User: Which sequence fits this backbone?
């Protein structure tokens, strides 16, 4: 293919009318597809049907301490669920608590506690005046929305190939108003980047001016490899160990959930941190809740143990289940890549990277075209994530990021949606060049 | 029986040695009973075993809008769960949202939103300086703990026979630092009092100085009658209608859960308020969570529909289930009353009222003895709720309230525990009179 930049105006006009015809044809098909969020597909959720009947009815659902999961209490979650989530996060049992279905709530509430009560003796952040938070960008809109809601100024930090630009981070944390950094360290949302060991070590060794600065480590995709049995899986350095070694034992919070393992609407979540941080959190939680839904915690453990092959094998169950889900997801990611290659390779109008895991593909249009492309796709029946959503405040200064979420649509729908997306990208580019 | 006050010192001494012998005998039995919290008993929880398999595995668990409960979204909860909880609270569908397993979390988070963001345009309470909250007393320790944690001064308001002392409440709310009142309006914790229509109307018609004053209406025992088929059930005036009629449409929040209907550790909860208040809450929740556990919501509806006799009959299912549970609980309440009557009637050392519903019996010792009695019972193996817990800050000025929670122990254990409690009360009274 010849790059659009090398075409003559006449050739561009010919291309334009061909693309317009294809776009109109798509519009007439009356598509109704949604690729806005990284939602698991119904068939993917079907794979966890065993979860619905994981608990036998002929015996009481007791945890491994003999406590009744149906009754009040056990703020940290039942031991077997804590073990499972500790395994998932790669931290010791004593560093984990297990919550309800939304890890976002664990993150939000952690920021809220900092605001209301202060962290480990620090002044409550509501009394500290100006507050700032570091946002590796492009990044996850729901993270940014949390700190924005609490009045933080979200500071974008460019993502490099191996994680956030650590020179900028190191400089930023010399400002005592900077209270934290959002990280999706493995298969980042939306680029699929995994932080290098160097980046993890530099994060762990930060010397922030603020004593209440924390690393929010949302390890959302820890076992979400697309090719789990090959060498094509990213490995992430253990942040806890790195922080301990760097003399920063209390600087980290980790989060995870089974939203994309079991059910996005009915999974379990986990928060890990130093034992001292966790004790402080537990004291607050004992006022906020009568305990998490422990029946669902036990349901998850039993279901995963059944997959893993027996008692105590729930973590193995996760790995086995994720291998199966990878078999459903990888073809979708490959389809996106294939269609984009077929339609866009060599035209000089878009860049994207096919990730090895996670839930997203980040595509960059020519500068200034992302909003237009997303709007055109919507007009033809395909809803994408809002352009700009990957930036704090929803403002992408280059207006070029488009986040593709391939997980939800069926593969034949995905093929159509990507073809339409590519046509919109090409159309917008041709129009820009002709106007230019 | 002759009142202890009318016994001679010699008679008191004889009584003392007899009681000491009985107490020692109890101690030697090595009891290990816990009546500290209003926990459902294991057999009571067994009655909800159908909940574990309420969802079929051969079809997708979709809600009545066809949305997949296993996936993200639906911040307010699925429609059929909202209908159910609206019915339970006696408010329209549009006024309800359904959350996860802990209604305490809904209350805590509601107070937190007032602190952090302010309510309906009011200044965030973190910026308002001194804050006060009204606490009908004796009352529920977990309520008081929430406002205490946020730095409110908890103001005790004496409970009368038909609810809080409304003259004092009306006067208190002329103070703009007073931001709310905790209410358990039906079968109150711990007295079992139901607010009279007059009290509800006076609450609804309050003219608080603070625009962000709210009534926190924790209708925890709305269907928890001990004698549901008889005339011995309390009826509670509808607060929402009363507030609407009084021109105070936004002054109320209602809360409920299925903790004592299905599972204390795995139920569903609800928050109701005016549509305007609810819209504000939903906007915050859309940042805090990806949605509640909708699978568990659907599981509850299906299970209760099966009990109630079919689709749309979940509320009938609750009433039927609660009639059955009442059959298990009423004998326990009657046993407490019977033992206390047998051991204490006429001695002039204790008062208690046998309630018609709820989860507690409130007993009053002679002034100054509650802590001692609770400690003596504990030494002999029976853990009661801490003396003073029914008062803000855990400080009962008369040191006389003891909260009895009959639901958890088996009935023969309960009989022993109450006999021991009565012996402790008598012993402490005799010692006080002899010392006096």
Assistant:
């Amino acid at each position: 293919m010849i790059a659009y930049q090398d075409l003559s105006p006449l050739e561009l006009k010919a291309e334009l009318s061909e693309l317009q015809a294809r776009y109109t044809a798509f519009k007439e098909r009356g598509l109704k597809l949604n690729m806005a969020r990284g939602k698991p597909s119904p068939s993917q959720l079907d794979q966890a049907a065993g979860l619905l009947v994981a608990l036998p009815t002929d015996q009481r659902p007791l945890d491994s301490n003999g406590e009744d999961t149906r009754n009040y209490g056990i703020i940290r979650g039942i031991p077997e669920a804590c073990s499972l989530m500790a395994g998932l996060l790669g931290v010791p049992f004593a560093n984990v608590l297990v919550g309800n279905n939304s890890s976002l709530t664990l993150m939000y509430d952690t920021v809220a506690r900092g605001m209301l009560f202060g962290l480990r003796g620090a002044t409550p952040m509501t009394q500290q005046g100006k507050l700032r938070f570091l946002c590796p960008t492009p990044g996850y809109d729901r993270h940014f929305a949390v700190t924005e809601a609490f009045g933080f100024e979200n500071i974008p930090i460019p993502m490099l190939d191996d994680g956030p630009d650590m020179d900028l981070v190191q400089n930023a944390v010399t400002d005592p108003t900077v209270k934290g950094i959002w990280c999706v360290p493995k298969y980042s949302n939306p680029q699929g980047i995994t932080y290098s060991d160097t980046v993890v070590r530099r994060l762990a060794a930060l010397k922030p001016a603020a004593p209440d600065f924390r690393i929010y480590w949302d390890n959302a995709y820890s076992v979400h490899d697309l090719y789990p049995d090959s060498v094509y899986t990213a490995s992430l350095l253990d942040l806890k160990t790195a922080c301990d070694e760097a003399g920063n034992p209390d600087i980290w919070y980790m989060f995870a959930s089974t939203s994309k393992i079991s059910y996005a609407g009915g999974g379990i979540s986990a928060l890990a941190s130093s034992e001292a941080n966790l004790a402080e959190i537990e004291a607050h939680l004992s006022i906020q809740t009568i305990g998490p839904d422990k029946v669902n915690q036990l349901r998850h453990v039993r279901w995963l143990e059944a997959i893993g092959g027996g008692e105590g094998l729930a973590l193995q169950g996760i790995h086995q289940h994720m291998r199966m889900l990878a078999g459903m997801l990888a073809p979708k990611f490959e389809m996106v890549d294939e269609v984009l290659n077929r339609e866009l390779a060599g035209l000089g109008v878009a860049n994207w990277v096919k990730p090895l895991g996670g839930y997203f593909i980040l595509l960059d249009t020519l500068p200034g075209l992302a909003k237009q492309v997303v709007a055109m796709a919507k007009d033809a029946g395909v809803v994408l994530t809002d352009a700009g959503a990957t930036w704090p405040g929803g403002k992408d200064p280059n207006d070029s990021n488009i986040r593709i979420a391939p997980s939800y649509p069926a593969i034949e729908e995905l093929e159509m949606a990507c073809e339409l997306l590519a046509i919109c990208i090409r159309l917008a580019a041709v129009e820009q060049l002709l106007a230019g």
